[in-house]
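Thread: sanity check for a docking pose with copper (II) ion

Original post by kr_44:
Hi all, I'm comparing my docking run against an independent structure prediction. Below are the sequence and the ligand SMILES. Could someone generate the full complex and paste the C-alpha cells? I mainly care about where the ligand ends up relative to the chain.
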Amino acid sequence: MVASPTEAGPAAERKEPNHGLRIFLIWLPIAVAAMAVIWIVWGPHLPPGSMSDTAHSQQFAIQILAFLAAPVMAFVLVFGAYALIVWRHREGDDEDGPPIHGHTRIQATWISVSAVIVLFLAAFGTYELAGTGFAGAGAGEGPSAIWRPNGTPLQIQVVAQQWRFTYRYPQFGGFETTALMMPVNQPVQFNVTSLDVIHSFWAYQLGVKADANPGVNNIAFTTAKHTGKFVVRCAELCGLWHGAMTNYGNVVSMTAFRAWAAKTRVQLAAVTATLPPYSTTYDPTVIPQINAAVAKSGITGANGYYYPPNDPVQP
Ligand SMILES: [Cu+2]
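Reply from moderator J.T.:
Ran it for you. Here is the predicted complex with copper (II) ion included:
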C-alpha cells in the first residue's frame, strides 16, 4: 500500500536531510586525500619512469589522468555506499524517490562537468603529443614525421626480423649490430623497419613503441636523460619465438658512445661490406642472398637467419 499524505506514516514525518550536501562533505576529504596520494606518493613511480623525455611525458600524462580520475572514482564509490546505506528499502515504505529526469540542476551539473573534463583531456592530449619538443611522445610517426625535435638527431635504424632486433648506424658507415647503444642528452631518431612479418620495437624505459612493418620506415624520436640499461621487447605477436625477441639497450656518455661506434665500425668493416647499402627499408627477398654472400666471405658464424652473423659486439 502506498502511504497517502493524510496517513501520518513514519516516512512522511521524517524531514529529508540535504543528501547532496552530505554526499559532498563525505566525498570531499576522500577525493582530496586520493588526489594528494596520487600526485605526491604514487606519481613519481608511475610507468614508464623518466629515463627519457618521451618516457617522462608519458609518466606525466598518466599522472594527470590518475589525478583527474580519482575524484570521479571517489564520487562513484561514495554515492554507491551512501545509496546502499541511506536509501535502502525500509519496511512499510513503498514510496519511490524523486526522478533525476527533469531535475535541471543535476542534469546541468552532470553535462558541464563531463564536458569540462573531456574537453580538457582533448586539449591536454594534443598538447602533450605535439608540444614542447616531445615530438610524438615516442610513438612511431610513419615515414614523414610531423613533429621533430630541435637539432640534428642521431640516426639509429631498428631492423626487426624473426626473432631478433639489429641496429644500423648510418652516420658511422652503416654498420649493423645486435647492441643498441645511444648517448645521453642527444636526440635520437629511430628508423624502425622489418625484414619479414610485423614486429613492434618497444624500448620500455625510453617510452618508445613503434611498429616494425616490412617496406615501411617508421620514425620515432627520443632523448635519453639518464645513462643506464633499458629493455627492448617485441610488442607484436610475430611467430613462435616472439616471447624471446628481447634484448637490452644502453644509454652511455657521448664520449663512451663515440669510442664504441668508432671501434665497432672498424671491427665490423668486413661484414658491413657484405650488407646491402643503408636504406630506410629493405627488400626481404634479398636476405638469403646476403646470408649466402656473408657465408662465402669466410666470416664464420653465418646461420642463415640474422645479419650480421656472429656479431662480436654483444652488449
Ligand atoms: Cu617480433
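The pocket of copper (II) ion is lined by residues 160, 163, 199, 234, 236, 238, 242, 245 (CB under 6 Å). Hope that helps with the comparison, let us know if your pose agrees.
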